[in-house]
Amino acid sequence: MAEGLTRRRVGTPRADGANGDEADAAGITPPLTRAASVDEIKADKQPLLTLMEETLLLGLKDQEGYLSFWNDSLSYVLRGCILMELAFRRRIRIGKDAFTGMTGVSERPIEVVSGRATGEVLLDEALKVIKGSGTRRTVASWMDLLSGETWNIAKAGYQLKQVRERLAKGLVDKGVLRTEKRNFLFFDMATHPVQDARAKDEVILRVLDTLNLPRTAAAPTRAGSVPADSGAGAAAGAHARYAVGQGVGGQAGRLKLAAITNARFYKGEEGCRFALLRRVCLVAAACAGSVLENPLVHMDMETRDRAVTRAEDLMEVYGHWPFQRESPLFTREIDSGEAGDLMVEEVIAAVISVLRKMDRLI
């Protein structure tokens, strides 16, 4: 599993050499692009874990170190997470043309805004593939191509290979997972059990906040592991009952960003742009990728159903462009109204729109 994997680049990202811009490679911003570069620098202040890594962590079995063998949708969802992550870092946007007002956001092609490297191998590889394509394609088309969900052999070169394994290796580099060999009857396979339990606990707490569940619902899944802010009663019994609406949003069900005390991987999250929208994207990806129920498995069936329903409602609100402002699940903390931010939100809406239709796509 570990063979042929590309090791993560460490250090300050350098400019894409394909641009032929020696000034960027030297860290000097040309005067004509100075404003755009400032936005990119601000956008590069991202959490330590990407959307792809967060979604993978939710689906990963903590002690066994592998994903469910029956999950056939996660790979497709991870490609959507790559596109959303590129949008958050202001590398891609939805293209504009004469028919923009006549087509839905998911039917418009995406284009590369900046080819500057992100420092994440998968993101840089996807960015290079999109930039090198001579054809403008929609979000759904790129998700099909990057995941290999196409019958056209000529398009096989667009596929991103070994995405799950490479994400796991990146999490090993970050100290979140470790690598072990496990025997599966007739073959040995490299697995990646959780090394730093705090990382997954913080991801779960952010999911519970978005689903408006109390943080005490974050029952530990590992012996001796108590999530931050979970309280003394976190170790609830099997099939415990929780009320959706007891979380940080209150009975009104509104979205609200609450910081995680003593956070290790999301320190200062409340000061990052799109922090709340990132949480919505995580819940949407987890729901579409069939890994959302993993952190809810200890809850009773009614609580799980209501939590999944809220996740689907969030996808309905933020899977349209413009966002459904009349919904109680919409909050201005997500939409700043700035022109540069709207560029990011359009891509997010397009990807979530595709995730909502996954049952018909796969």
Oligomer: single chain
Global Rg: 20 Å
CATH class call:
Mainly Alpha
Order of helices and strands: HHHHEEHHHEEHHHHH
Low-confidence stretches: 1-36, 230-236
- Helix-strand makeup class: mainly alpha
In total, how many beta strands?
A: 4
| Fraction of residues in helix | 25-40%
Report the CATH superfamily.
yeast vps74-n-term truncation variant domain like
| Order of strands, widest sheet | 1-2
Averaged pLDDT, please? 82
Main beta sheet strand tally, sense and closure: 2 strands, antiparallel
**Portion in beta strands:** under 5%
Number of separate domains: 1
CATH structural fold name: yeast vps74-n-term truncation variant fold
Distance between the termini: 25 Å
Describe the structure.
This protein is mainly α and 362 residues long. It has a single domain, classed as yeast vps74-n-term truncation variant fold (Orthogonal Bundle). It contains 12 helices and 4 strands, in the order ααααββαααββααααα. The protein has helices at residues 22-25, 34-43, 51-59, 74-88, 121-132, 139-147, 163-173, 197-210, 275-288, 301-318, 339-356, 358-361; strands spanning 92-94, 110-112, 180-184, 187-191. The strands form 2 sheets. It has a two-stranded antiparallel ribbon with strand order 1-2. Strand 3 and strand 4 form a beta hairpin. Helix 3 (51-59) packs antiparallel against helix 4 (74-88), helix 3 (51-59) crosses helix 9 and helix 4 packs across helix 6. The longest helix has 18 residues, at 301-318. The protein is globular. The two termini are 25 Å apart. Mean pLDDT is 82; it is low at 1-36 and 230-236.
